[in-house]
Input
Amino acid sequence: MDYTDIEKIKKIISSSIFDRIFYWKNIIIRLTELKTSIEKQEETEEKINVLEKEYYDLKSDHKAELKISENLKTKIQILENEKEILAPLKIKNIELTNELNKMKQEENTKNTIRDSQIAQYEQFENNARERERKAIELKELRDKEKEDLIKRTWQDHELNVNNAIKLICQEESITFIEEWHHDKKPDNVIQICDEYIVFDAKSPGKNQELSNFPNYIKDQVGRLSKYANHKDVKKHLFLVVPENTIHILKALTYNDSNYCVHIISPQALKITMWSLKQIELYEFADKLSPEDRENLARVYAGSQSYIKRSIQIHNDLNEKGLDLIAQNMKLISKKSLEGIKENALEFEKGDIVNVSKQNRGKIIDLEQEEVRQKEIKFKAETRTIIAPNQKSPPPNNT
Output
């Protein structure tokens, strides 16, 4: 209620009876206006209360906003400070990021190279395994071929010995006996000074292990008694075995009560038969002088010693040769020398050692062989293989 409304109320209260009677209508109007004014005033006050409440709320919110604003300003300031601090770090982070990307790129490159190298190594390893497998297969094949060749040699041994003895008989004018007047003819029989000399060819069987060969030979020595029992058969009998079986035999001479058996190789046939042939040069051996008999015995003993020593030397050379081959293969067995090994094996296929050929009906020229021996010795001296004054060691007759 404002001042105007109060004045109106005062006028109504102070109005006289006369005014109330004759001017009641005006009073009613004033009361109505007053009521209206009061209602408006109440509405206004109500609005004011609402506005005041809103004002207080807004003021409270404003304070909160101010506080938030202050907090935000503080945080902004802190962030500004942090920004100033982080600015160099940001630059450093960019640098580190670039460096990291560069390192990742380098790592990817290295990984690519590594993967490529691993693939190459695996390929190399696979190739090496394949080469090793092929080398093993080739070695097994060569070993089998060598074994088959040895077995074929053993199978053909009897025929080869027979042909060799017949050839030597032709060259040395020795009688080869085709017709045997006793039971169970030996493989080969020759006749010198009305005596039959037996040369039996023996070799390992097709499926026989070489380690069993000495026992087999010992058994065959006992079986030769059926020939030695004949009076016209010489008591020195010969078993001819393949050259590659000599090394397995511990004894090359077997003495029985009434006969002796000598083990020789086909390579010793010629010198053996030549030595035996020398006896035939004395038509009347029983009429020889004691000196001639002694000389003949010396020649025969020397021939026997020469044959045995020749066999022994061949065996030693074979053993040393096999040892050198094993050392050579071991020397180039490293992977780094795989190429050399393969080339060496290829070169070996084309490497041929041709020994002197012996023609049927032709006698070896000793003078020519002496000249050749001097040439070989001269080459050895000029290449310092042997000393110029070095003499050959005396033969060992053991």
